[in-house]
What we know:
Elements: E1 3-6, E2 9-12, H1 18-35, E3 45-46, H2 54-64, E4 67-68, E5 73-75, E6 78-80, H3 87-99, H4 109-112, H5 126-143, H6 147-157, H7 172-184, E7 188-191, E8 224-225, E9 228-229, H8 231-237, H9 243-249, E10 261-264
Parallel strand pairs: 3-4
Antiparallel strand pairs: 1-2, 5-6, 7-10, 8-9
Helix pairs in contact: 1-2, 5-7, 8-9
Amino acid sequence: MNHLTYVDDTIIFASADPYSHQKIVGLLSKYEKTSGQLINKAKTSYYMYANTTADLVNIVGHITGFTKGEFPFTYLGCPVFYKRKNITMTLLKRSRTSYTHGRVNYFLMENLCLPKEEGGLGFRSLFDVSRAIFAKLWLNLRTTKTLWANFMRNKYCKKELPTTVQFKEGSHVWRKILEAGEEVEHEILWELNKGTINIWHENWTGLGALYHLVPPDFDTNELREGNDSNFQMLENTFPAKIAPHISQELHIGNTYEGWDTPKWMPATSERFSVTTA
């Protein structure tokens, strides 16, 4: 992404290289000559990283003719930062400051998020919303083959399952997705079709991952005899306490075609929703 535009408000992203800025300024000059519209330099600013050298800042200012602005600035009503900032904590602090006077603390954010029956206003916690959004990203990573999911798996997982990947570093988003995965992975139930899931590390029985119980050469295709489950094999393979549960709860689809189907167990619709998470 190299620019954002809404009506006559435009942000152009560029490196600090003087050559790049000369090209941008030249292009803007051509636009002015062609369209007859002029850029209002009094309302135009350039923004740079705080640790940029003074010489480079001056060079950019000389080339563009714009004044240097300071972060954060507002674009379409939203604050823009050049680094990560804990907006949630800032909002919470402002809430405490705005609504707490002396001993009167009934309107603290924690209280506002309580149910109405408990004296709150039923607001949803921003922390809970954030957790739900990252949980949705985890489910997209685990259960879809979208461009984003394929990119994330190739970048961070390589040939490993997301549930077994050892790379715990990476971007802030990746780390938060992994944290969400630890909370919600056991709530994903796989309905067998082709039997393409990983029997060791994915929940296909409702009991969670069975990597500590399943032999390494186990094949789910052998669980089927026609349209029925091979219960004799279950009894011979799993411990006595596990086999009956699997034989009663095993979810096998109506067709052997297509990928195994994920289901979100906490919802009656079997679909994950940030609203109800």
